[in-house]
Design goal:
alpha/beta
Length: 300
């Protein structure tokens, strides 16, 4: 019932929210009266614990055709799948990067079309997601997991991914690595967010009824992970970007409004956007039009 990350219930009248959300808000209101810091700690506890969702049969069928392997990230085991093109040299390795509370199989509709274009394809589950170890995750964790998976699975002779398809918060994790390098990688983003503070604010509005705990949440995040939230702002990263980028975003996306995709496309040098209709935040991942446009772009 609670889609805490991001807030699907954003903008809904309080009386129309699910009972579980209203009860959670009452609990936060009471706790905040006792200790603002304690309320922020509870919010952080919820914020960094993604839920795992059942894997539909259509995803399991595609994953079963991939080669299952494990990648180590510290002491954690990361589940990964690889699909190989048949015969001859490949275009290089393409990575499928899911978002918050997602899983690698969510992007499985891209696997076969990319393989047909000659790509070797790798999908994986972030820490705390899907079949991977862990219960807590964060944007730095997602960034470091992607970096570790790429390092462990790049094909012989490759020094960077040939292509990346990333969804939602997964696109932000990829952007952090693109700002460091991988200049020749071609990129397709689906429903990318542009502003972490807006993302955090919506979470707090959903969970607590207001965003007034945002400074406390940011302080706790920075203390726990040892990195400044300001260093992850797209506005500060964009000057270091230039990889060929196609943004695909649905105009009815309630989780990450299309303004995020428009901002990313308009500020990323050379990027372009395709605006789609009626696909929301997740149906876009299995839209034949979205898959076709992304694969055509990556294979140019």
């Amino acid at each position: 019932m609670i889609r805490a990350h991001p807030a699907t219930q954003h903008g809904i009248a309080p009386a129309e929210l699910p009972l579980a959300v209203r009860a959670m808000r009452l609990g936060f209101r009471a706790l905040r009266l006792v200790s603002r810091r304690a309320a922020a700690r509870v919010a952080l506890h919820l914020f960094v614990r993604p839920r795992r969702h059942p894997v539909p049969a259509r995803e399991r069928e595609v994953l079963a055709r991939g080669e299952r392997s494990d990648v180590r990230v510290g002491e954690r085991r990361i589940a990964a799948w690889t699909w190989q093109p048949s015969g001859g040299p490949t275009r290089g390795t393409a990575y499928l990067v899911h978002g918050w509370e997602g899983r690698g199989g969510q992007l499985s509709a891209f696997a076969d079309p990319l393989v047909a274009e000659g790509f070797r394809v790798v999908a994986f589950d972030h820490v705390g997601h899907g079949e991977s170890d862990g219960v807590r995750c964060s944007l730095p964790t997602m960034r470091d997991t992607l970096a570790a998976v790429v390092e462990a699975t790049l094909g012989e002779g490759e020094d960077a991914p040939a292509a990346v398809v990333a969804h939602s918060m997964g696109s932000f994790a990829a952007t952090l690595l693109f700002a460091r390098g991988w200049r020749a990688t071609r990129v397709a983003y689906l429903a990318p967010p542009d502003d972490l503070l807006v993302y955090f604010s919506r979470y707090l509005e959903l969970a607590t009824g207001s965003a007034d705990l945002l400074p406390d949440l940011i302080d706790l995040l920075e203390r726990r992970y040892g990195e400044r939230v300001g260093d992850f702002e797209f506005h500060g990263l964009v000057e270091r970007l230039g990889q060929p980028l196609l943004v695909l975003h649905s105009t009815d996306d309630r989780d990450v409004p299309i303004e995020g995709g428009r901002f990313v496309a308009s500020h990323w040098p050379g990027a372009r956007i395709v605006e789609l209709e009626g696909l929301g935040h997740r149906r876009i991942l299995r839209s034949s039009e979205a898959v076709r446009r992304a694969v055509e772009f990556l294979a140019e």
